[in-house]
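Q: Given only this backbone (294 positions), what sequence would you predict?
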């Protein structure tokens, strides 16, 4: 019998792409959305494990409303901290591998060189604190079979995201003011899904050490630079995009000024890091355009 993979957060943008990737490889996968499994409820999780006996769990379930977490930290912690802790305990009991998707927000965001996997964390937002709690639960409960994959600036065809928003705005705005003082790595969910599946396979084969990996694209840019590339791919004039500062878009949760992650950890697992963000965006763009302008 082939190994069963359980994908939580299956109704989301990343979860959907993980399932698509697993289906392409003929892997037996169970799609668990919020209605199917409440990851913070031990009884709900145990029922899923009893029924499906997964060998690998990919936790794509998360509270991702960064600003709302500032006023609802307990609710965010239930999903981002308690949920991974409950899943980790079930994985320990049933002998399963856990891949926990995390975020650049666990860092302070004031660095000047790419954050390494083992650099000190220091979240400045409620969202970051809750995601760090999830990381810590997984790594402490599953020292040999727990994997944390941090990502950032995700976009994909299967949900609302920055790229689809910019495609929409290009059609209705003469000019766009976009933040130019935050640096990061736009990452296509299809690319991240591919690395999660590869990592899970390597974990089952015993060739990927447990611990932290960084699942973001290569290279770096700003939201302003990212938007100019989106306009170029649309055939629109990139000079319609104008740079502005973070102060012009004050939000409840502080945004990291520097979200660039290093990717040295993949070498330990014999897996190459994600490709450059521009190459990924070019390949992803037709599906994104079709999703936003059907």
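A: Predicted residues:
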């Amino acid at each position: 019998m082939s190994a069963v993979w359980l994908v939580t957060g299956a109704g989301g943008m990343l979860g959907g792409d993980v399932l698509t990737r697993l289906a392409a490889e003929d892997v037996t996968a169970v799609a668990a959305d919020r209605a199917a499994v409440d990851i913070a409820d031990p009884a709900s999780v145990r029922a899923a494990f009893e029924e499906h006996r997964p060998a690998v769990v990919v936790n794509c379930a998360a509270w991702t409303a960064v600003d709302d977490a500032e006023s609802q930290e307990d609710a965010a912690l239930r999903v981002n901290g308690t949920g991974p802790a409950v899943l980790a305990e079930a994985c320990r009991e049933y002998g399963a591998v856990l891949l926990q998707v995390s975020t650049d927000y666990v860092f302070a965001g004031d660095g000047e060189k790419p954050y390494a996997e083992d650099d000190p964390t220091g979240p400045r937002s409620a969202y970051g604190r809750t995601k760090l709690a999830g990381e810590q639960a997984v790594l402490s409960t599953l020292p040999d079979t727990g994997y944390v994959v941090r990502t950032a600036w995700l976009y994909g065809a299967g949900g609302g995201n920055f790229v689809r928003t910019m495609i929409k705005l290009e059609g209705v705005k003469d000019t766009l003011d976009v933040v130019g003082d935050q640096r990061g790595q736009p990452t296509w969910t299809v690319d991240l899904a591919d690395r999660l599946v590869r990592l899970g396979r390597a974990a089952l084969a015993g060739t990927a050490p447990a611990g932290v990996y960084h699942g973001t694209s290569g290279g770096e840019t700003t939201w302003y630079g990212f938007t100019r590339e989106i306009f170029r791919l649309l055939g629109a004039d990139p000079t319609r995009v104008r740079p502005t500062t973070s102060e012009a878009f004050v939000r409840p949760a502080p945004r990291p000024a520097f979200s660039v992650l290093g990717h040295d950890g993949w070498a330990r697992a014999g897996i190459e890091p994600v490709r450059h963000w521009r190459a990924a965006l070019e390949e992803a763009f037709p599906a994104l355009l079709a999703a936003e302008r059907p």
